[in-house]
Design a protein that fits this description.
Layout (H helix, E strand, L loop, with lengths): L7 E5 L4 H12 L3 E6 L2 H13 L4 E5 L5 H15 L4 E4 L13 H29 L3 E6 L12 H20 L5 E6 L38 H13 L4 E2 L4 H15 L11
Parallel strand pairs: 1-2, 1-4, 2-3, 4-5, 5-6, 6-7
Helix pairs in contact: 1-6, 3-4, 4-5
This protein binds nicotinamide-adenine-dinucleotide.
The site of nicotinamide-adenine-dinucleotide has 31 residues, from helix 1.
């Protein structure tokens, strides 16, 4: 079982939403925190707020789609705290487009949601293995990593890739001191609906309801998700599904695979 207390966590996309909720929970559990995020003002605010609750926090501006910046994040984290025991590859964005649309959207979303996670693994895992100490990687996918939602093609592909990468790591971590989990939430009340606020080269117009329903039966808060994450990692759970009904839908999908059926159309509980 992974022990959180007196250890060091790095969280990408930690200035908002699930990442910030997790940072706050991990600080409560006695961890020292490195927050990486592309958005500098939000990062500063998040660090200040965590420090005011007594947390030991370092903020590092980092664009996870840039391999060199993720490597710099690792170097800074190890220089500052000496070691890293927990990595949440959490930064993510979404863009609405069909599979045959949005050439720039594919590059933007896959660069952050998939390559960002791969860069995190490449920069941190060798260092974590070399330390010989227990460590945990939590990759944030989505229910979109299990089932394909129409209209967010690049997000589905990136998140399915994150699930595959996490399953691979699980096998490759056998007989090491490292473990891995993959977070697959449904709807969480965060700023993901305004992802394009951090996108270069576009004129950003706030449309918070463009991607996600603003309220519904299944909406969870980031703090609720953070509680679930810590509980599930304590229980060595690999697939962390805060919304269990998606597990049932994924099961139906698996059954259809062997019965010759078509893919399940995922449904959100409203
Ligand atoms: N909110 C949901 O309903 C939901 C559901 C399933 C999965 N997720 C996943 O949860 C993760 C966190 O998203 P959230 O919902 O908390 O959204 P959010 O927008 O509140 O937080 C995402 C954070 O990532 C940061 N970020 C964006 N691009 C970045 C980059 N290139 N480099 C570093 N940081 C970057 C943002 O500045 C922000 O602080 C994402 O991977 C998202 O796909 C969210």
């Amino acid at each position: 079982m992974f022990e959180f207390s007196d250890r060091v966590a790095v969280i990408t996309g930690g200035a908002s939403g699930i990442g910030l909720g997790l940072a706050s929970k991990l600080a409560e559990e006695g961890m020292k925190i490195v927050l990486g995020d592309i958005e500098s003002a939000a990062l500063e605010r998040a660090c200040e707020s965590l420090r005011s609750s007594g947390a030991d926090v370092l903020g590092v501006q980092c664009d996870v789609s840039d391999k060199a910046q993720v490597e710099a994040l690792a170097i800074t984290a190890y220089e500052h705290f000496g070691n890293v025991h927990f990595l949440a590859n959490n930064a993510g964005v979404v863009s609405r487009h069909k599979a045959w649309e949005g050439p720039d959207d594919w590059d933007w979303v896959l660069g952050i949601d998939l390559m960002g996670v791969i860069y995190g693994v490449q920069s941190f895992v060798p260092r974590m293995l070399a330390s010989g100490e227990p460590g945990h990687i939590m990759n944030t996918a989505s229910t979109a990593g299990l089932l394909a939602f129409p209209g967010i093609a690049s997000y589905n592909v990136a998140k399915r890739g994150v699930v595959a990468l996490s399953e691979t790591l699980h096998h490759e971590f056998a007989k090491t001191a490292l473990s891995v989990s993959v977070l697959c939430p449904g709807i969480v009340d965060t700023n993901i609906g305004t992802s394009e606020r951090n996108r270069e080269g576009i004129e950003y117009k706030p449309e918070p309801d463009k991607f996600l329903p603003s309220e519904g039966k299944e909406n969870l808060t980031p703090d609720e998700v953070a509680e679930i994450i810590v509980d599930e990692i304590r229980r060595d759970i690999f697939w962390i599904l805060p919304h269990k009904h998606y597990g049932q839908q994924a099961l139906e999908q698996a059954n259809r695979r062997i019965s010759g059926g078509t893919p399940v159309m995922p449904h959100i509980e409203r």
